């Protein structure tokens, strides 16, 4: 068995969560899987997996080696596809990553439609609220919210989203008005771990270049979008999320946007992919299929988040109509 085959077995064991499962996927016996891993460890001279009769755990060296293996395998697959001139016949497994909420609510339905349209393509969707190193972690493409810093990636802009501060009419009717950013420090805050658990930063005031920050002691901290929305709707406090997270609650008048004029900075939204991956048929097919759908969906949700039904007032008593 050559080293590339052993690498593929090693990665399959990690992806499937066990040696037996990897054997079933690859059509190899448990003994053959064990021999391949032992051969790979002998070649590199370190232990990659700490194995027991029931489970295994990556060693520190194994974690680093796995990243390299994924990159090597992805490069080989890409080379094979290009050499075989299969651009017109997408196939194989598409690895894609996205933030949890956007992936579950927006990207997954698009992936369902994509798999219906391309039955020869399978999808592995990794929902992670952290920046993913696409090449090191073996990803074909990612949905990324935020400013891009890696110039080696190909980026396709989908639009922009905004952070908004929101509360329920029930909460606002029972607590002091919020007329400026500093007022937030006097209120019950439901903090999302990704948006600041003890302070929020806002764009500079008109005529200033210094960003404004408000510090607070949160009443409740949670690392889930849904976990922040539910208590906010129930009137337990004020939260800050991306506008599309609460588009449905705004349209149903269960939440209201606060400090609208103070939280206007747009955050770019992209699909990103490593250089060269767009030449792979499955990636090209997904991009062509998904980009117009994702643009339309995020545009609609952003509009819903900005426009509230007539008659709903903000904490400044101002009525916002459709714009």
What does this structure look like?
Helices cover 39% and strands 22% of the residues. It has 3 domains: 3-84, Arc Repressor Mutant, subunit A (Orthogonal Bundle); 92-162 and 267-306, Periplasmic binding protein-like II (D-Maltodextrin-Binding Protein, domain 2); 163-265, D-Maltodextrin-Binding Protein, domain 2, CATH 3.40.190.10. α2 (19-26) crosses α3 (30-44). The strands form 3 sheets. Strands 3, 4, 5, 6, 7, 10, 11, 12 and 13 form a 9-stranded mixed beta sheet that branches. The chain has a two-stranded antiparallel sheet with strand order 1-2. It has a two-stranded antiparallel ribbon with strand order 8-9. The protein has 323 residues and is of the alpha/beta class. A hairpin with a 4-residue loop joins β1 (49-51) and β2 (56-58).
Please summarize what this structure is:
The protein is α/β, with parallel strands linked by helices. The chain is 39% helix and 22% strand. Residues 1-59 form the HTH lysR-type domain.
The name CATH uses for the topology of the largest domain is D-Maltodextrin-Binding Protein, domain 2
Number of strands: 13
**Count, helices:** 9
The helix/strand order is: HHHEEHEHEEEHEEEEHEHEEH
Question: Structural class, please?
Answer: alpha/beta
- Highest-level CATH class of the largest domain: Alpha Beta
The whole-number mean of residue pLDDT values reads: 84
- Helix fraction, binned, reads 25-40%
Overall 3D geometry?
Answer: elongated
Weakly predicted, low-confidence segments:
308-323
Largest sheet: 9 strands, mixed
Classify the beta-strand content into a percent band: 15-25%
Domain module count? 3
- CATH H-level homologous superfamily name of the largest domain: Periplasmic binding protein-like II
Named at the architecture level, the CATH assignment of the largest domain is 3-Layer(aba) Sandwich
Measured between the Cα atoms of the first and last residue, the distance is 65 Å
What Rg do the Cα atoms give? 24 Å
Family: Belongs to the LysR transcriptional regulatory family.
InterPro entries: LysR-type_TF_proteobact-type (IPR058163), LysR_HTH_N (IPR000847), LysR_subst-bd (IPR005119), WH-like_DNA-bd_sf (IPR036388), WH_DNA-bd_sf (IPR036390)
Function: NodD regulates the expression of the nodABCFE genes which encode other nodulation proteins. NodD is also a negative regulator of its own expression. Binds flavonoids as inducers.
GO molecular function, one term: sequence-specific DNA binding
């Amino acid at each position: 068995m050559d080293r590339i085959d052993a690498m593929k077995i090693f990665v399959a064991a990690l992806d499937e969560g066990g040696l037996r499962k990897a054997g079933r996927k690859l059509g190899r016996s448990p003994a053959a899987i064990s021999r391949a891993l032992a051969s790979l460890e002998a070649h590199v001279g370190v232990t990659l997996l700490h194995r027991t009769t029931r489970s295994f755990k990556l060693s520190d060296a194994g974690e680093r080696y796995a990243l390299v293996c994924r990159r090597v395998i992805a490069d080989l697959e890409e080379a094979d596809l290009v050499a075989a001139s299969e651009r017109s016949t997408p196939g194989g497994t598409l690895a894609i990553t996205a933030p949890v909420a956007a992936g579950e609510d927006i990207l997954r339905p698009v992936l369902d439609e994509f798999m219906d349209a391309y039955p020869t393509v399978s999808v592995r969707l990794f929902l992670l609220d952290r920046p993913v190193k696409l090449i090191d972690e073996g990803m074909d493409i990612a949905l990324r919210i935020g400013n891009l810093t890696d110039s080696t990636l190909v980026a396709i802009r989908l639009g922009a989203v905004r952070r908004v501060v929101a509360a329920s009419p029930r909460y606002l009717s029972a607590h002091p008005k919020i007329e400026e950013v500093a007022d937030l420090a006097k209120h019950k805050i439901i903090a999302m771990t990704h948006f600041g658990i003890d302070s929020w930063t806002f764009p500079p005031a008109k005529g200033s270049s210094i960003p404004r920050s408000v510090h607070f002691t949160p009443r409740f901290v949670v690392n889930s979008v849904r976990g922040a929305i539910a208590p906010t709707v129930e009137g337990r406090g004020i939260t800050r999320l991306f506008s599309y997270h609460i588009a449905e609650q705004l349209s149903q008048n269960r939440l209201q946007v606060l400090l609208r004029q103070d939280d206007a900075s747009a955050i770019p939204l992209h699909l990103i992919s490593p250089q060269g991956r767009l030449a792979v048929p499955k990636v090209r097919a997904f991009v062509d299929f998904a980009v117009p759908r994702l643009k339309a969906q995020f545009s609609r949700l952003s509009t819903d988040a900005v426009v509230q039904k007539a008659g709903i007032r903000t904490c400044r008593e101002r009525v916002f109509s459709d714009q």
